[in-house]
Design goal:
This protein has four helices and no strands. It has 129 residues and is mainly alpha-helical. Among the domains are: 42 residues, no CATH class; 27 residues.
């Protein structure tokens, strides 16, 4: 007879959570970066990052109940708002970001605009006196 295996109290199986294993096989002629992007996407969809972040610190039971109640209320309010908009004939559209020409997403000037004589850059052409 085999001895009973006792799980550590902090493991996912001991808490009754499903064991999440994500595998990504690299396709023929696929770069490692593309496979990593697929892996990260699958991790995001499965909720691994959310679980890891939630289990980083202990959360009191009352705090967890309060947070989950707030999340439920938020989803109910969002659903009623969307239903009201659809009933009135207004279909909500997804907000799009408008990126100005010559600026990247980070808010700095594009590299094509900076060069010698343009005044931009990281002091590559020396200080401007």
């Amino acid at each position: 007879m085999l001895p009973a295996i006792q799980l550590p109290p902090y493991s996912a199986a001991a808490k009754g959570l499903p064991r999440l294993v994500i595998k990504v096989q690299i396709r023929p002629n696929e770069s490692l970066e593309a496979a990593m992007r697929r892996f990260k996407r699958q991790c995001n969809y499965s909720g691994i990052f959310r679980l890891a972040k939630a289990n980083t610190w202990h959360e009191k039971r009352s705090d967890r109940r309060r947070r989950e109640r707030r999340e439920r209320l938020r989803t109910i309010q969002r659903a009623t708002r969307l239903a009201r908009q659809q009933a009135s004939g207004r279909v909500p559209t997804k907000k799009r970001r408008i990126v100005k020409k010559g600026f990247s997403r980070m808010g700095s000037r594009d590299s094509r605009d900076s060069g010698p004589g343009s005044g931009g850059g990281n002091y590559s052409s020396g200080p401007n006196y």
